[in-house]
Design a protein that fits this description.
Length: 524
């Protein structure tokens, strides 16, 4: 499903009203009725307070109040705006509601004593908010949040940025939100995601062609989409049909990362997996792998990669593997920087770049990073978390990444899209939620995941899953979307079975099979 900004939704509204010819009052009527319907599905008639602003969001709330009043609810309406400042559609709905004899009060601040024990409908601000909520509106929101009441927000919780999910001063923490046409980015990005509660997306008559228009480049990833990406497993097949992944990483002190990535790839269906490690560490790996194979490559002593490993890796890739995953536990020094540079520029197969692979690339000048990625002969998928992303986009060594990290977190979709387009790489910005971006400017918000995944090694598991599906023949974007979705689903299953506190990264590997079964509909 497409996900829109406030500007994109306003354009859908405008075209529907001006070009298609559906009157604004009709759209408002259908929106208010959709809100009332959702409330009546959850609650039998009882006291309810509808708090309305002076714009079209308030008009939606007034329609809902009228419908609820007509269905036996004891409705109290507060107009939290000067009556002289109401929009024309809002004023029309207010005059209509007056004819039903519902209780309508005008108060600049709605206090907790006004609403205690009632269901609350928040119809104060809506999607057009661009400035900080202050003064009387902020006090009303504080009272609403402290009331302990069940809260329905109309379109988006008042105080949340539709574009970024940012709290603009104060925001209503809704139990449910009823939005119209399409979800807004602020519903799915934190902290707005936490304030939205259960989200309902209602059809109120916008033309389908507008809701699916290619100019809307952000989407949410859905089960029925990624389930189509799972590679077929015909009866007549063998391990060579399902890809050979070469992992490069696992320097001294970080040997677990590459083992987890390799095992995740095996669990995701890879036919063959090889781990390329510094030759002096080969014996320690031989005792830890079972299904996986090993490739000892040149090191410069003490279990660190040498740039001389390049020829061995490229030769192996040319003859035997379908994808190279670079970075888990690799370490960062002058040799890894040179090795990563040359692998990206010369690899005969696609690359997944993670962890220290990203950090080695980030040690180069910014324009060199971009040039290398743009001249890669094969697709490159990059999987940074927020701090790695900050290093990737900043010039030179930076001792304090916090300002850039905060900037990235405020606009995860925009930051991912910008770098992906600039570098012509596929970018997976890990976090809550994880964002996938492609070089054409499309972005995808992943809905799966759990706090249980905030544990060391979870990113290595994701690298293994994505690399596996890429090795099995999926295009980079499909491998990324499927891998991120399954990774999050494995985290949800692990949290359910083990708990959010005790889950570790290797648990995610164990639950990849159940996550795949969920997609195929074969879960027990």
């Amino acid at each position: 499903m497409k996900v829109v900004t406030a500007k994109e939704m306003m354009e859908i509204d405008r075209i529907t009203i001006e070009d298609v010819g559906i009157p604004q009052v009709v759209l408002m009527e259908r929106a208010g009725l959709a809100v009332a319907k959702r409330i009546m599905e959850k609650f039998s008639p009882q006291p309810i307070t509808v708090i309305c602003g002076g714009g079209n969001n308030g008009g939606d709330g007034l329609v809902a109040a009228r419908e609820l009043y007509n269905n036996g609810f004891c409705v109290q309406v507060f107009m939290a705006a000067e009556l002289a400042s109401l929009s024309d559609p809002c004023r029309f709905q207010l005059e209509l509601l007056k004819k039903y004899n519902a209780e309508i009060l005008t108060k600049p601040i709605v206090r907790e004593s006004d609403i205690v024990g009632n269901i609350i409908v928040d119809a104060m601000i809506g999607t057009g908010l661009t400035k900080q909520v202050k003064d009387t509106m902020a006090k009303t929101i504080d009272y609403i949040n402290s009331s302990g009441c069940f809260i329905f927000s109309v379109d988006i919780p008042s105080g949340i940025s539709s574009d970024t999910g940012e709290i603009l001063g104060r925001a209503v923490k809704a139990s449910c939100t009823v939005t119209f046409g399409l979800p807004k980015r602020g519903h799915l990005l934190h902290p707005g995601r936490d304030y939205t509660g259960e989200l309902f997306v209602e059809d109120i008559g916008f033309p389908r062609s507008l809701l699916t228009d290619e100019s809307i480049t952000c989407e949410t990833v859905e089960k029925n989409l990624v389930s189509m990406f799972l590679p077929n497993r015909p009866d007549y097949s063998y391990k060579g049909n399902y890809g050979h992944v070469l992992f490069i990483g696992g320097a001294r002190g970080k040997t677990g990362a590459i083992v987890m990535a390799a095992k995740a790839a095996m669990r995701s269906g890879s036919g063959l997996v090889t781990i390329g490690v510094p030759s002096s560490l080969l014996d320690s790996y031989q005792s830890r792998v079972t299904e996986e194979m090993t490739l000892p490559v040149a090191d410069k002593g003490k279990g660190r990669f040498s740039k001389k490993a390049l020829t061995e890796i490229l030769d192996f890739a040319e003859k035997r593997c379908d994808i190279i995953a670079i970075g888990p536990g690799m370490g960062v020094d002058t040799d890894t920087v040179e090795l990563v540079r040359e692998l990206i520029v010369n690899s005969p197969v696609p690359i997944v770049l993670d962890a220290d692979g990203i950090n080695s690339l980030s040690a180069l000048k910014y324009q060199d990073r971009i040039n290398i990625l743009n001249t890669s002969p094969t697709p490159v998928t990059i999987t940074p978390h927020t701090a790695e992303m900050a290093r990737l986009v900043l010039e030179g060594k930076t001792s304090n990444l916090s300002p850039k990290c905060m900037e990235i977190e405020k606009d995860r979709v925009g930051e991912a899209s910008k770098f992906s387009a600039h570098s012509t790489s596929y970018l997976i910005l890990k976090g809550v939620p994880t964002i996938t971006a492609d070089p054409e400017g499309n972005t995808f918000i992943n809905p799966t995941g759990s706090p249980a995944m905030a544990t060391s090694g979870a990113g290595d598991v994701l690298t293994g899953i994505i690399s596996s599906f890429s090795g099995q023949g999926l295009p980079p974007l499909y491998a990324a979307l499927l891998g991120v979705y399954l990774h999050g689903m494995a985290g949800e299953i692990a949290a359910d079975k083990i708990g959010v506190y005790s889950t570790i990264a290797s648990d995610l590997i164990d639950y990849i099979p159940l996550a795949i079964n969920y997609l195929t509909g074969t879960e027990k």
